[in-house]
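Postdoc handover notes: sequence design on the structure in folder B. Input tokens:
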């Protein structure tokens, strides 16, 4: 959402990156989930038209919400007009979750633990379903090891039960899904452990099912980074 987006920008700026927001259409994820494919195709065509001339190997598209960023990788190449498919494949290869981008920069030596506090903290991660299918929760886990004394574990959960609007339309069932693994894991953990969830819907589901606030990973890193004077 807006708060996490602003936090991601601030984090990237302090890390030394010239990040900015490009005016574009919403992703079309909700339209696809409800079967409004004609509208989703219009959105995809417009977004590819916008980003094809902006992105490059040096200027990637970075997203913080797995379901909306990963639509560029998964659905867009098959959804756009045939005349735009080559452009969609190009854009696909320039798209990264912020977790992936920061891990790449860590591997290059461009981001180090020296930029972060040495405080001790335990964090448990619930991964988003799109993230698990098309990327990996391991990027989130690695990113959160930038503060040297952070201990990270991944909750072995499946879907949180929300799945877009499914949880609101099938509330009782969504709560039962959450109770399979995710909710008990959070309810039974030490209250000092910070819960992390990259997905907006997952964070809402965790709040509804456990009365626990889950943080986006950029929020956790922002709180841990040493701010310039």
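Designed sequence:
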């Amino acid at each position: 959402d807006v708060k996490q987006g602003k936090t991601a920008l601030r984090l990237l700026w302090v890390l030394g990156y010239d990040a900015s927001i490009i005016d574009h259409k919403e992703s079309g994820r909700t339209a696809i989930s409800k079967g409004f494919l004609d509208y989703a195709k219009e959105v995809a065509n417009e977004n590819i038209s916008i980003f094809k001339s902006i992105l490059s190997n040096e200027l990637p598209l970075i997203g913080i919400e797995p379901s909306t960023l990963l639509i560029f990788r998964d659905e867009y190449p098959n959804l756009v007009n045939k005349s735009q498919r080559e452009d969609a494949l190009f854009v696909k290869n320039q798209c990264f979750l912020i977790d992936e981008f920061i891990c790449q920069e860590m591997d290059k030596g461009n981001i180090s633990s020296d930029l972060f506090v040495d405080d001790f903290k335990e964090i448990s991660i619930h991964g988003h379903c799109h993230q698990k299918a098309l990327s990996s929760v391991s990027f989130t886990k690695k990113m959160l090891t930038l503060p040297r004394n952070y201990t990270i574990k991944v909750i072995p959960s499946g879907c949180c039960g929300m799945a877009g609007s499914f949880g609101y339309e099938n509330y009782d069932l969504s709560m039962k899904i959450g109770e399979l693994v995710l909710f008990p894991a959070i309810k039974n953990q030490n209250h000092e452990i910070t819960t992390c969830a990259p997905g907006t819907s997952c964070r809402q589901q965790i709040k509804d099912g456990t009365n626990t606030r889950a943080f986006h990973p950029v929020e956790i890193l922002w709180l841990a980074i040493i701010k310039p004077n």
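Context for whoever picks this up: The two ends are 28 Å apart (CA to CA). Don't rerun without checking with the PI first.
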